[in-house]
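not sure who needs this but someone in the group chat was asking about RDD family protein from Terrabacter ginsenosidimutans so here u go. i didnt clean anything up, its just raw.
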Amino acid sequence: MSQQPSGWYDDPSNADMLRYWDGVTWTNHTAPKKSPTVSQSTIGLPQQSQQAQHGQVPPDRTGAPTPTTPMPQGSGWQTPSQAPQQQAPQGYYQQAPANAQWMHNIRTTADGIPLASWGKRFGAWILDGIILGIGSYLLLRAFVPEYFTSIQRVIDAAAAGDQTTASSLINDVAGQAVRAGLVSWVFSAVYCIAFWTTTAQTPGKMALGISVRRADAPGPLDIVTAIRRRLLSALQLVPFVSGVYFLVFLLDGLWPLWDDKRQALHDKVASTQVVEGKQPRKQA
């Protein structure tokens, strides 16, 4: 089945609006067909009709917009909760009209897919963090049980006022912490890479309706790109660097707030972007 191109289509639930199709499913991005400030405009007309108004091609004699590409019909497309529920009419707009400024204000990838907001990315990170936290705890209990035992011994010694014993136990805790950190990092790396290379969505991203892709091409990540996307987090395992990793982590998470491509630092390392909607499946 051929993949419908992403772009602006007639909104089937409102004849005066356009709605963005991300190549897989409807998004919640809409825009008026006609400018609220320009009485004579070609906003909301397909490219062929716009050319007709400029004398480049004959206009449709019926006066109706002439679609250049049909919308997906029947099975093969999904509808989010706030998207149109009925079948979409024809009418395809490869990109926002040049004078539809409000449509161009939506940040997109180079091929026109709307980028995910920082808020959605943060929400997905929280959800994935809860899953990873629970999973890491269970793994550490199974593979590094002495880590928790050493911590408890230090706490007990400090509570008893035995600073000498507490200080001597700190080296044991530090050694176990290195092993615990390695186990946790490997688990989180496997978790992320497995989802990025199959569905392009971790459970957190799936819940928020966003996905990750290469900046130059749609679809789930290849294994090399997925590994590159995890490289920045590996700094927490490097001696003398792990102590300041929190600053790197904080800067990485906040970077999309001011970046024009809404990329975090780990996105820049891997040349990836987080976008609205799902990613098309790789062809077998």
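also Residues 36-83, 85-90, 97-102 have pLDDT under 50 and may be disordered. if thats useful
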